[in-house]
Inverse folding.
C-alpha cells in the first residue's frame, strides 16, 4: 500500500505519522489491497480556497476535498482485496483547527474525522440525499470510533 503524505500546510502540530497509520487502518478496514495507492496533501487556507473555487466553484477554504482516481469501492471481507489508485485527499489543518474548537474536541480528532470522511468520498460515498447521508455518516462514525480506540 502506498500512502503518500505531502505537508505544505506549515501546521507543525499535524502528526503525519498518525495520518499514515490511520489511512492504513481505514484501507484495511474497508478491504482495500495492500497495493492500493492513496495521496494525502495538507495545505494552507489560501491553497484550499483556491482549490475550492477551482473544483467546486465555492468561495473560501473548506476542510477536506477528495479527488477519486480509479472509481474504487470498499471490498468485502470474504472476497479479494480491491486494488488500484484510490485518489487524493486534500486537508486544511487550519480549517480543521477552527472546526475542532467549535466542536469542543481536539484537532487530532477533527483531522481523523476529516481523513475518514475523505476516504469514504474516494470510495464513492456521498451525503447529498438523506439516505446517503445516513449511511455515510454511520459508517464514518463506526470507523472513527474504532480508530480512536486503537492504543497509541
Amino acid at each position: 500500500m502506498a500512502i503518500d503524505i505531502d505537508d505544505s500546510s506549515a501546521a507543525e502540530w499535524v502528526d503525519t505519522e498518525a495520518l499514515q497509520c490511520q489511512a492504513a487502518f481505514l484501507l484495511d478496514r474497508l478491504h482495500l489491497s495492500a497495493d492500493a495507492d492513496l495521496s494525502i496533501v495538507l495545505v494552507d487556507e489560501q491553497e484550499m480556497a483556491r482549490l475550492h473555487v477551482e473544483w467546486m466553484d465555492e468561495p473560501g477554504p473548506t476542510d477536506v476535498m477528495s479527488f477519486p482516481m480509479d472509481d474504487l469501492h470498499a471490498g468485502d471481507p470474504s472476497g479479494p482485496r480491491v486494488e488500484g489508485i484510490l485518489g487524493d485527499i486534500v486537508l486544511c489543518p487550519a480549517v480543521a483547527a477552527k472546526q475542532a474548537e467549535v466542536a469542543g474536541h481536539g484537532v487530532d480528532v477533527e483531522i481523523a474525522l476529516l481523513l475518514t470522511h475523505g476516504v469514504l468520498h474516494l470510495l464513492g460515498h456521498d451525503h447529498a440525499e438523506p439516505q446517503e447521508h445516513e449511511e455515510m455518516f454511520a459508517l464514518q462514525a463506526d470507523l472513527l470510533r474504532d480508530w480512536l480506540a486503537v492504543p497509541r
